[in-house]
Amino acid sequence: MNAETLASKVWSFCHTLFWLKDASLGGLDNLPEPHVLVGEIIAHLESGLEAFRSVTEELESSPTT
């Protein structure tokens, strides 16, 4: 895996975390229902974890220099 691919995967993970700071929500009154919000959080965290697993697998399979 090259550095650009690794950076892209890490950026993707970080981007999934920062959606919680979305200014377009405008306040607590505009948040989705708790069960919807929890489902979205879980989906984003699982996606990020999968990205890190993929990076780990690629790092483990690439020859060391």
Task: Please describe what this structure looks like.
By secondary structure, the chain is mainly alpha-helical. It has one domain. Helices cover 68% and strands 0% of the residues. It contains two helices and no strands. The longest helix has 28 residues. The protein is elongated. The two termini are 13 Å apart. The mean pLDDT is 75.
How is this structure best summarized?
This protein has 65 residues and is mostly helical. It has helices at 3-18, 34-61.
List the helices and strands and how they pair.
Elements: H1 3-18, H2 34-61
Helix pairs in contact: 1-2
- Oligomerization state: single chain
Q: What is the tally of beta strands?
A: 0
Helix content: 55-70%
Low-pLDDT parts are: none
**How are helices and strands ordered from N to C?**
HH
Give the terminus-to-terminus CA distance: 13 Å
- Number of separate helices: 2
Largest sheet: none
Mean pLDDT, to the nearest integer, reads: 75
Determine the strand fraction and express it as a percent band.
under 5%
The secondary-structure class comes to: mainly alpha
As for the number of domains, it is 1
Task: Give the radius of gyration.
Answer: 16 Å
Features:
65 residues; mainly alpha; 2 helices; 0% strand
